[in-house]
Amino acid sequence: MNSAAEISKSLKSLVQEFEKALDQASLLQEVEEVRVAFLGRKGRLAEIMSSLPSLPVEERPGIGRLANEVKAELNRILDEKSRDIQNRLRHEDMSSFDHTMPGRIPDSGSFHPVTRVINDICRIFVGLGFDIVTGPEVETDFYNFEALNLPPGHPARDMQDTLYISESVVLRTHTSPLQVRTMLKARPPLAAIAPGKVYRRDSDLTHTPMFHQIEGFLVDTDVSMADLRGTLTAFAHEIFDPQVKVRFRPSFFPFTEPSAEVDISCVMCMGSGRSDQGGPCRVCKETGWVEILGCGMIDPAVFEKVGYDPEKYTGFAFGLGVERVAMLKYGIGDLRMFFENDLRFLNQFV
Ligand code: DAH
User: Fold this and answer.
1) Is the CB of residue 318 below 6 angstroms from any atom belonging to ligand 1?
2) Whole-number percent of the chain with pLDDT over 90
3) What is the pTM of this model?
4) Cβ–ligand 1 contact at 316 (below 6 Å)
5) What is the pLDDT of residue 2?
């Protein structure tokens, strides 16, 4: 049986023994082994304290207090040792750090080609004094058709393979409704472009059920077809190349009169109709021209729908397909590329 004096001696010498054991440890793993040997459930401290119950009751509190002090001291020494080892390891780590090694370059995102072209086109028209307007993709029959001089039963509605939400609500088939929405809110003079998604029940090699259009329109007194021609020629030179030729062909749209389609000299074959290899140019099918948009002078019937006096005001409008411009601008042969999100394709537009 151990006396109180013996126990207290063992407790005191435990501190020195602990320090000696820790001196041998140079790894955290070894420090942990020493901790278990001294402070663990079956360690030296526990072993010494196991004889406490055999002491006379009045001697126990003194020994208990001493044991707690020793325990706190052991823990303090242990923490200090662990910290020293951690600092040493960190230091060793730093000295083996090769600061000439190239850093990891984070992947950077980039704009989708469709977004790029929309931004480019907006920038050009904003530079010409146009505002940018947007509107809903779920549209009423009134804005998508009726106010644009396409009354119910009009044969031109068939051109647009409409996706119906209900009898009078559609997914907009073009961005032209923004003409109506804008004119109903503002008075001339006004000039705006409206970029956005449009939807048609059509899906094959050259059509996707969703694509992007940009509508443009300008209303004032004395606006003429020459203004339209000048504006669109300046645009084509800016977005493609100052060398491209621009031509207007008569066409038909219910919301413009007269109407035209605009072609530019083929950007692939420079209007020659022949490819680099001497064969026929696939893009313009040997004609030397490619269509880029539809346009015209706003029909007086549209002005009447929005409460503008057609005797006083004239205006022009145009609508272009963004994917089509992007294909020509970047030489992309397949429309589906835009929607497959293949990184090998998208990474080329960084
Ligand atoms: N909205 C027509 C379409 O989607 C494109 C268009 C043609 C818009 C002529 C116009 C325009 O503003 O004047 O096919």
Assistant:
1) yes
2) 74
3) 0.72
4) no
5) 76
In three-state form (DSSP H/G/I as H, E/B as E, the rest C), the secondary structure along the chain is CCCHHHHHHHHHHHHHHHHHHHHCCCCHHHHHHHHHHHHCCCCHHHHHHCCHHHCCHHHHHHHHHHHHHHHHHHHHHHHHHHHHHHHHHHHHHHHCCCCCCCCCCCCCCCCCHHHHHHHHHHHHHHHCCCEECCCCCEEEHHHHCHHHCCCCCCHHHHHHCCEEEECCEEECCCCCHHHHHHHHHCCCCEEEEEEEEEECCCCECCECCEEEEEEEEEEECCCCHHHHHHHHHHHHHHHCCCCCCEEEEEEEECCEEEEEEEEEECCCCCCCCECCCCCECCCCCCCCEEEEEEEEEECHHHHHHHCCCCCCCEEEEEEEEHHHHHHHHHCCCCCCHHHHCCHHHHHHHC
Whose C-alpha lies nearest to ligand 1, atom 13?
A: 295
pLDDT exceeds 90 at position 216: yes
CATH number of 113-349: 3.30.930.10
Instruction: Give the pLDDT of residue 206.
Output: 84
Residues of the chain with CATH 3.30.930.10: 113-349
Which atom of ligand 1 lies at the shortest distance from residue 295's CA?
13
Residue 93 pLDDT greater than 90, yes or no: no
In this predicted structure, the answer to whether residue 11 has a pLDDT above a threshold of 60 is yes
Which of 88-102, 113-127, 143-157, 246-260 comes out lowest in average pLDDT?
88-102
The verdict on the CB of residue 294 being under 6 Å from ligand 1 is yes
Cβ 216 under 6 angstroms from ligand 1: no
Amino acid at residue number 349:
F
Determine the distance separating the centroid of ligand 1 and the alpha carbon of 160, expressed in angstroms. 11
Position 277 pLDDT exceeds 90: no
Confidence of residue 153 (pLDDT cuts 50, 70, 90): confident
